[in-house]
Write a structure and sequence with these properties.
Structural class: alpha+beta
Strand order of the largest sheet: 1-2-3-5-4
Number of domains: 1
Helix content: 25-40%
Number of strands: 5
Order of helices and strands: HHEEEHEE
Radius of gyration: 16 Å
Strand content: 35-45%
């Protein structure tokens, strides 16, 4: 199973996460018409793992970014914290967490969407 599918299953099956975001957990990006809070997860890196014998990789270290987006930085951080336990239980290794912002498209009003981004790695076979 892909790292994205494992992450989606872990997050959508976690009651504390869905209590806040409901079913608004998406691959790659949050559709523009969806209200916040929401989560988007996407692959940022895939590194093949080879044995000393070379040849076909035995698996892949995959890095995902889990973008937890909300109206306030505090809420985005709280959602990110809620994501950590289910991801860890699904065999992800949490690498870090940072604050970020999704800019508002040109011509639209607002400052941007606040996000807390969790970076997690998963061994995919």
């Amino acid at each position: 199973m892909s790292a994205e599918a494992v992450a989606f299953s872990a997050l959508s099956g976690a009651a504390p996460v869905t209590a806040v975001v409901g079913t608004k957990i998406y691959p790659d990006l949050v559709p523009a018409e969806r209200p916040l809070p929401a989560i988007a997860a996407f692959r940022v890196e895939t590194r093949p793992l080879n044995t000393i014998h070379g040849g076909v990789p035995i698996g892949y270290d995959v890095a995902l970014e889990i973008w937890c987006m909300a109206e306030t930085r505090l809420e985005a951080n709280e959602i990110a914290e809620l994501c950590r336990d289910p991801l860890t239980a699904a065999q992800f290794v949490i690498i870090g967490q940072r604050s970020d912002m999704v800019p508002v498209p040109e011509g639209e009003e607002g400052d941007g969407i606040l996000a807390s981004v969790v970076t997690a790695e998963y061994f995919e076979t």
